Model the fold of this input.
Amino acid sequence: MALQNKFLARLASPAALLLFALVLAGGAAFLAHLYLQKREAAIKSELAAQSKKKAPPMVQVVVPRIDAAANAVLNGNLFVSRPVEDDLVYPDTLLAKDFPNLEGMRLARPVLRGRPVRMSDLQQPEVRDVATVVPQGSRAMTIDIDNLNSIAQTLRPLHHVDIFLLSKEQKAQLGDAGKGSQEQDQATLFMQDMVVLATGQEFRDASAPPDANSTMARPGEVEGAPAKGFDSVTLLVSPAQAARLMVGQRLGTFRVVLRGNHDRSALAMKPVRAADVLPASARGRDGGIEFIVGGRGGNMLHRLPTLPSQDSLAPAMAKSHTLAQALQQPEPVLADPATTASAANQPIPLLRGSQ
Done:
């Protein structure tokens, strides 16, 4: 009994109680640690399962190993592939599977290390053999051009244009009304919806897919690339169209009008002449000027040549004027020869006016 009381007294001592509390706390901490570890493992496995279900597909893109400067050449030493999530890739990003087809091209602008290379970062490849970009059955024909015809040097290959011919209106077109009149300037829709194959020496493949050409950066459109001017345009034509262009060059001069990218509609348009663009008031004031010449014994009516726009009215006006004179003219009187001779020596008065 005394031994039991002595043991209970030791357990009730502060040191024993502190040791017991420490043991309990250690056990609770160990159990909590085990629980947290299991819970963490369960959460990780749950998140991994969810991430596998929702993980976006990865694609291999081309990136530079170091900062690449402009004019850097695409090669395996400087550029490598890198996996990128599919939803983070631009449509014109250079993929690793397409790298062999574009190897050897140059950068048009600098690209930072690890950033995907885009097609717009590449310089447009130059066509060295023009015959390779002319489709079967077509021909390439070059015409001279200036800053006005080049749409201020903004005309580019694969643009669609209409060609107007500025020439002189032939007298055969005027008919009987054009006899004795001057030839007028006229503008005729010569050809329409023609494809521009090249501007200067910048050629493009007309048979290539549109995306392959439109995503390339042209020289002069990016910083650091030299700008290129041109003074000629090469059109993609058929043999018959080439012959028409040759004849048209001898008849007058060409004016090129740019079409919209999606405008392929045919246009019916008659030639526009110089008289068509004059105001109606200006066309009505082009009648001839009448003047009367003669001495005391003469009364002759003359008219200056009329303008071409009034030639069709000339026969009717002359007929009515002759009829009026016939109704108003008095009976002829024989003049005395002496009087006639003296009147011939008198000065001739000149009257000017509309009547």
User: Anything to note?
Assistant: Residues 133-214+226-276 form one domain. The first strand starts at residue 58 and ends at 64. The first helix runs from residue 2 to 11. The two ends are 164 Å apart (CA to CA).
